[in-house]
Amino acid sequence: MANPLIRNLEQFGALSHAEKAALQAATGMVRDFAPDQDLVRDGDRPRDCKLILEGVACGYKLLGDGRRQIISFHIAGDFIDLQGLLMGAMDHSIGSLTPGRMAVVSHATMLDLTETSPRIARALWRTTLLDAAVFRQWIVGLGRRSAYARIAHLLCELCVRLKAVGLSQDGSYDLPVTQAELADALGLSTVHVNRTLQALRRHSLIMLRGGKLTIADWEGLKAAGEFDPHYLVAGRKNDANGRSGWLPSGPEPSGVSPEL
Amino acid sequence: MANPLIRNLEQFGALSHAEKAALQAATGMVRDFAPDQDLVRDGDRPRDCKLILEGVACGYKLLGDGRRQIISFHIAGDFIDLQGLLMGAMDHSIGSLTPGRMAVVSHATMLDLTETSPRIARALWRTTLLDAAVFRQWIVGLGRRSAYARIAHLLCELCVRLKAVGLSQDGSYDLPVTQAELADALGLSTVHVNRTLQALRRHSLIMLRGGKLTIADWEGLKAAGEFDPHYLVAGRKNDANGRSGWLPSGPEPSGVSPEL
DNA sequence: CGCACAATTGAAGCAGCTCAAAATAAGTGG
DNA sequence: CCACTTATTTTGAGCTGCTTCAATTGTGCG
Questions:
Q1: Residues of B with CB below 8 A from A67's CB?
Q2: Which of A146, A251, B120, B133 has the fewest Cβ atoms surrounding its Cβ within 10 A?
Q3: Which residues, including other chains, have CB under 8 Å from residue B242's CB and lie 6 or more apart?
Q4: Is the pLDDT score of A54 beyond 80?
Q5: pLDDT surpasses 70 at A254
Q6: What is the biggest distance separating any 2 CA atoms in chain B, rounded to whole angstroms?
Q7: Phi and psi for B210 in degrees, rounded to 5?
């Protein structure tokens, strides 16, 4: 299997042999992590960038009263603290949800890579732009979507992202996330997440059991969450219009540019 | 007055004479815009990047039922469609809220700038990281904060950002935003925004009249919104720990690293 | 087998919503 | 500068999606 970082960055355009070699060398230092552990903490000034190779983590912030909001989920190929490279301090924490492994790349190496190769710099910048696009969707969901639509949207998003790194087949994937964590991500209470999941099951949109999620009705789930995967693939090479077999399954809907 | 772009990018570290000259030259092409006009539209594939020089704009997404969620506010010095440079298509729209002027920089020029100067590339990347940090705060607010705290936080954020570009003095600034627009930004109804603003006034935290906002009690408003400005200034030069007179007024609270 | 955590259920409460209308403010043409 | 029109702010009142509190029922695992 190719280096997850290289695969990730090459989504946007090929890299030269030398560039790939440099990235390969940079990600040589690997570290394991346990579940439910902080990988980076709010306020930290990391001295390196960490890239998930295996496992799942989430970004989160704690509020004054101890409640928390989960900001993002991170899977293989994701840098979790690029912010530290250019911003100095972290404005949020990253916690592991499962055991896993990450590559650790010193800031010096990162800066060197970006200085040497404008293409790598650009690809990294692009990952930040993609993060921002995901954040925008979360904002829309939290601000204006019902609990039902919010969950549906998140499950769609995860499916597409996991599929892109080979961790989802046939609309089925591991969801190593408790309902309490889902609630923190979706801005809901645990109780309501539970009831809403039941509704999604009752409507035969999903099956969920023992951390394994199966999307039973992709089109239905997409519709329920008003999910449009364009935002996840913009800028990719070899699918100028955002469709070329990366979808979980089934044909695209007719409209070429569905207005959100 | 210095070029807003140069001022913006130099927050993070000085640029060379040549770099500043290149940026100055790049922002030569200027265009006016009217209020309530789309500057960029969801799905567009812009051929240039637009930088606000004067006026206020907002990013937004429309939902299927016509409701909308405002994603971001843009002020002088902000690029509004950097996304278009590397991602191709826009995943949201940008609308003007006031009349204003913007600089238009072709993608070719942008790419050239970033290729020629790693420092400019890095500074631009950093603005995207900053955008992402702001998004994270919005997510926390929408997900977990009360209407009251949400509004307070937004007003604090705007104050700090406007102050940074010289558009706020003494905790007072123009807020050319209707309550309906605030509602769309905060994920609330117009009615509730109105009532909550009244509460903020009743508690003497703010004064608001005719589009002019005055923060009457900065510490109180900060506390109400659990606002911690660190996320807006991380990585800035000349204030490693995020305090050096850029605050609206009054001393910093005692704790150095207030846990959010 | 039994602990500890996760999922589920029930019931009451409330923050914020919707609907509807009145009161201001902000244009706009004459 | 006024009369008229339109947008924004404000108020009232009933409604509901989601929360909170409090158990109960799985379920993975040492």
A1: 144
A2: A251
A3: A89, B229, B230, B233, B234, B236
A4: yes
A5: no
A6: 54
A7: 60, 45
Inter-chain contact A125–B125, Cβ cutoff 8 Å?
A: yes
How crowded is residue B99: how many other Cβ atoms within 10 Å of its Cβ?
15
- The answer to whether the predicted template modeling score (pTM) of the entire model surpasses 0.85 is yes
Q: Which two tokens stand for residue B28?
A: 């030569």
Considering only CA atoms, which of A158, A142, A55 is closest in space to residue A99?
A55
Residue B55 pLDDT exceeds 90: yes
DSSP type of residue B38: E
CA distance A177 to A45: 28
Q: Which residues contact A65 (CB under 8 A, 6 or more apart)?
A: none
> Are the beta carbons of A91 and B234 separated by less than 8 Å?
yes
Chain-centre distance of CA B40, in angstroms?
Answer: 17
> Where on strand C do bases come within 7 A of a protein Cβ?
5-11, 15-20, 25-26
Q: In what order do the strands lie in the sheet with A38-40?
A: A38-40, A93-96, A57-62, A68-74
A32 touching chain B per CB within 8 A = no
Q: What is the reported pLDDT for A143?
A: 98
Question: What is the chain B residue with the closest CA to A66?
Answer: B260
CA-to-CA distance for B4 and A184, rounded, in angstroms? 38
Spatial contact of A207 and A221, defined as CB atoms under 8 Å apart: no
Tens of pLDDT along B63-112? 999 999 999 999 999 999 999 999 999 999 999 999 999 999 999 999 99
Supply B55's token pair.
């006026």
